[in-house]
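Let us work through a complete example step by step.
Step 1: write down the sequence.
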Amino acid sequence: MTKILVVEDEAPLRESIVDTLEFEGYDVVAAADGQQGWNTARREQPDLVVCDIAMPELNGYELLLKLREDPETASLPFIFLTARADRPFMRHGMELGADDYLTKPFTHADLLAAIRARLARHTALKKAGSHDLDRMKTEFVRLITHELRTPLVSITAVQDIVEQQLNFLSPAELDELLRIQRSGGQRLHHLVEQSVLLTEIRAGTLSRESLAEKGVPTVIWDVLTPAINLARRFAHRNREMPVYLDDKHGSAQVRCSPGALRHAIAEIIANALTYSPEGSDVRVEQWQADSSVWITITDCGPGIPADKIDLMTHEFQQLDRDTNEQQGLGLGLAVARQIIDVHDGELQIKNNPAGGTVVIIRLPAWPEKS
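Step 2: predict the structure and record it as tokens.
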């Protein structure tokens, strides 16, 4: 049965609304002010709220804001009751997240029509959201299955061929098979390392607090050089493309987990290699300014649409996976951002006016200046 919360400080009106809704078969709970309404909403988990605006304790606006801030009630359909009908007043409520307005005095028919319309829309949105969630789950399972099976298939196939035909393979053929097997192993290792780092961050074993206690003061050169080599293993294309390193202050130090920070920078460089056109290059620049160490990674690729830049550091996000024939789970930049964040740093992605993409990393320099 659909449950409706009625929040109204005028007892006669509140009782009239409750009677009307109960007569129509709704399960109704009521509150005499905003604070009671908040407590009742959390306890009863209604399907819709009908609420006055001018009330003691919490007014209607304040109650709406609290409901929208709570994940449990954020999408709850909300109808305001008000004696004011001027546009700025109504628009303010809609901007806060109200779904509808009823101006006093209103008829029972008006009330029921508004409630039915809001419930119908909410049901439609839930169905659409459920459909999208199911689609995302299906796509995620497909992605995981593909990314785990593909390298395993190549590794297993090479092993079978070597076991059955070792005496008949030429050195060149054996070398090619081993190259395929090595590539599959590296791809699996990359996926495992991404998963391990995300797990450490989620579990708190790799955090700002742990780095403040156990972080190692490290010369940035000792991170950047191996990161470039690691990036070539991570990259899906252009592994031999030139990567130019301009380290203006290569002796600058950062307090870090060297392995994690190396992995983060390698993910970004690998992304730059993968998206750059053949015949171009990737440039890595590093310098220190005051209390920060700065690193930029610039490629000559097609850039990223402005409306998708923020999405690129979210987990399982890839730009045009099908058309670009990408590998991986779309975790590279997400892992990099989270690692840099726990190092108390910042990561920005910008399109280069001259073409390509620039990733900017800022890290606190060590030792810290007081």
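Step 3: interpret the result. The chain has a mean pLDDT of 83.
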